Amino acid sequence: MFRPAFFAITLLGFAGFCHAASPLPKGLVRIVATSQEPNYLQPWSGGTVSGASGSGFVIEGNRILTNAHVVSNSRFLTVSKEGDPAKYLARVLHVAHDCDLALLTVDDPKFFKGTTALPFGGIPAIESTVSVYGYPIGGDRLSVTRGVVSRIDFQPYSHSGVDAHLTIQIDAAINPGNSGGPVLQDGKVVGVAFQGFSGDVAQNVGYMIPTPVVARFLEDVKDGSYDKYMDIAVSYHALNNPAMRKALGIPDNDLGVFVGEVYAGGASDGFLKAGDVILSIDGLPVSSDGTVPLDDDQVEMAEVVERKFKGDSVAFDVVREGKPLSVKVPLDRAWPFAMQANAYDKKPRYLIYGGLVFQPLEANFINEHNPDDLRLRYHYDHFISQALHLKKPEIVVLSNVLADPVNAYAGEFTYGIVETVNEISIKSLDDLAKAIDSGGDYVVIEFSGPGRPLVLKREAAEAATPQILSRYGIQKDRNLVP
Fold first, then answer.
1. Are residues 354 and 453 in the same domain?
2. Which of 23, 210, 426, 445 is least surrounded by Cβ atoms within 10 Å, i.e. has the fewest?
3. Which range marks the domain in which residue 116 is found?
4. Does residue 179 have an active-site annotation?
5. Which of 100, 220, 231, 282 is catalytic?
6. What does the radius of gyration of the chain's CA atoms come to, in whole angstroms?
7. What is the predicted pLDDT for the residue at 47?
8. Is residue 414 part of a domain?
9. CATH number for the domain harbouring residue 277
10. 217 in the same domain as 173
11. Is residue 321 part of a domain?
12. pTM for this predicted structure
């Protein structure tokens, strides 16, 4: 079955110029970014340099709000404003890859002269009209399109690849280039344009980030850092089956969801249990479809947690083994689903020894290598659900072999998961570096699963490594720091 894929927007496709019924806001910004995309196939290389543009808008505090994907991996940023041909140097203040938002500023005070910070509104009503502002492909002039709000829902955010938040769907196509542009209604920002559908899956369908998500981001960075979204780290399921409800000892009143899994090491571990029935969250009744009444609407239960911050807690009323129970779950850190999230603004980590290239397993690695090794795929797909992270916080993989006589028989081990080096357990790339550097006449590498170990004579490997690096144009044998 074909499944539609969301895509993040970088450049606005030409959608036609429109005449606004009111004067254009004096805070619209065009952003041009020169970025360097890391290369996870050749992690020692600098990566590919490319240019793209997007949109943004001025908010209070001489700041510019835009999408994270507009400025991700950027090395040089310039901004310009409507009616001013000058380009100003900009810099990133904060970036939130989990909700695809970023804040920029311009140090030259002349940029903000004549601009007005755009005010924020609330969530627009279904079937109400909104205006989307952005810049067309290949041009410097503003374009405005209009659409009708058609859905308010939780949807995946394609930038990170693993996060889902509140989104608003409109029937105006949001094309490449509109990223970060404001969506206005009655002169107030009600959303930030950020993604649409790829291919011919849907016509005239676009999505914007609503103001509750924006407000949470702005509140989070008030202390000077971004702590990310918190996660209760449980799966829950609808409870519509009367027979199941009776077996669980709860009335057939259309309230409650079933906790399917509590992820080991997550915030709820030790507080909630698989088999619990959640009846309320922070005093809000949870319907059997997993929704709660919030902001005069029925929204996904996760939206309550979405508005929490590091240091907050979530209160649950549950039924456990037929007995009522109150539980409070503290939120002290972001949950490490980040291993399966697209990563930005960091250099690939790697270690080269005797021409063997080792890298940690993560989303960027999977996306570029696309390995067909089933064991590797299993470790990636079930890293959290099978609690593999408790044993190995980081999975280290032999990703490549740079051919040399010293490693002539190592090709068969490609994409193997490193278990031990000289009987030292490897739980991270740092562990691997320490084990390899620890001495001994031989380096004996054991991999996950059956099979023989990979053995290198230390003297020969260390003599060959500088020659291998020179042959392949590699300056450093390792990068252990993101």
1. yes
2. 23
3. 6-222
4. yes
5. 100
6. 26
7. 93
8. yes
9. 2.30.42.10
10. yes
11. yes
12. 0.90
Annotation says 438 is catalytic: no
Average pLDDT, the chain: 90
SS3 80: strand
Q: Look at residue 258 and tell me if it is in a domain.
A: yes
- For position 396, which CATH number holds? 3.20.190.20
Task: Label residue 337 by pLDDT band (50, 70, 90).
Answer: confident
Strand partners, 58: 64
Number of domains in the chain: 3
Measured between alpha carbons, how far apart are the two ends of the chain, in Å? 38
Q: Classify the C-alpha dihedral 167-173-178-181 as positive or negative.
A: negative
Residue 1 domain-assigned?
no
The answer to whether 80 is a known catalytic residue is no
For residue 167, CA distances in Å to 12, 63, 125, 194, 299 come to: 19, 23, 13, 10, 11
Task: Please give the Cα distance from 120 to 326 (Å, whole number).
Answer: 37
Residues 156-206 have pLDDT tens digits of 999 999 999 999 999 876 766 788 999 999 999 999 999 876 555 556 788
Mean pLDDT over 443-453 rounds to 95
CATH number of the domain encompassing residue 15: 2.40.10.120
Q: For residues 419 and 452, give the distance between their C-alpha atoms in angstroms, rounded to a whole number.
A: 12
List the catalytic residue out of 72, 179, 268, 287: 179
Q: What is the pLDDT of residues 282-296, one digit of tens each?
A: 999 999 999 999 888
pLDDT at 139: 62
Please state the rounded mean pLDDT for residues 419-440.
Answer: 96
